[in-house]
Specification:
Radius of gyration: 16 Å
Helix content: 10-25%
CATH topology: Cyclic Phosphodiesterase, Chain: A
Low-confidence stretches: none
Strand content: 35-45%
CATH architecture: Alpha-Beta Complex
Largest sheet: 5 strands, antiparallel
Order of helices and strands: EHEEHEEHEEEE
CATH class: Alpha Beta
Number of strands: 9
Number of domains: 1
Strand order of the largest sheet: 2-6-5-4-7
Length: 168
C-alpha cells in the first residue's frame, strides 16, 4: 500500500479565517474547503507504507520553526486552473526551511516526483477557476509555526487531507 504525501505549513485559526476572507472575494471556481488550506513545502507523491515511520518523524526537525508570512498577491496557474494567494517577497527563513527539508528527504533516500526547484509558495484558494481580476491584495499575515506531514486522499467531492505527523 502507498500513500500520497506532502510536507506543508498548516494555518492556525486566525490565518485560516483570513485566507477564507480572500477566498470569499473570488469567483468562478470550486473553493478549497477550509480544512484543506495549507502551503505545500514539498510534494512527496506516492510513498510506500514502510516509509511512514521515518516520514512521520520529519516534522519534529522543524518544531521550532517560526516565520511571519505576508501574503500580498493573487496568482493563477493556467494548466491546473488554480487561483491562489502568495507572496511577492519570500522570507529567507521559509526558503531555508524548504532547503533543509529537501536535504533531509534526500538523506532519508526519499525520491521526490517531478521538478522541485520551481518553488512558488502559495495557498490554493479555488480549483477549476478563472484568473483573478486583480493581482495585489491587502497584506494577509500568517505566523507560520506548524510543519506537518499530510496525506491526500481522493474522495468523490475532491481530495481530503489527513495530518499524519507534526502538529496542526
Amino acid at each position: 500500500m502507498s500513500h500520497r504525501l506532502f510536507l506543508a505549513l498548516w494555518p492556525d485559526d486566525a490565518a485560516r479565517d483570513a485566507l477564507l476572507g480572500v477566498q470569499a472575494r473570488l469567483f468562478g471556481g470550486r473553493p478549497v474547503p477550509a480544512a484543506n488550506l495549507h502551503l505545500t513545502l514539498a510534494f512527496l507523491g506516492q510513498q510506500p507504507e514502510g516509509l511512514l515511520p521515518a516520514l512521520r518523524a520529519l516534522p519534529r526537525r522543524w518544531s521550532d520553526f517560526d516565520c511571519l508570512l505576508e501574503f500580498d498577491q493573487l496568482g493563477y496557474f493556467r494548466r491546473p486552473r488554480i487561483a491562489w494567494v502568495g507572496m511577492r517577497e519570500i522570507p529567507a527563513p521559509l526558503l531555508a526551511l524548504r532547503k533543509e527539508m529537501l536535504d533531509a528527504l534526500m538523506e532519508e533516500g526519499i525520491a521526490l516526483p517531478g521538478a522541485q526547484e520551481n518553488f512558488v509558495p502559495h495557498v490554493t484558494l479555488l480549483r477549476d477557476a478563472e484568473p483573478p481580476q486583480q493581482g495585489d491584495i491587502a497584506p494577509l499575515m500568517w505566523r507560520a509555526r506548524s510543519v506537518v506531514l499530510a496525506e491526500s486522499m481522493a474522495q468523490p467531492g475532491g481530495s481530503q487531507y489527513r495530518i499524519l505527523g507534526g502538529e496542526r
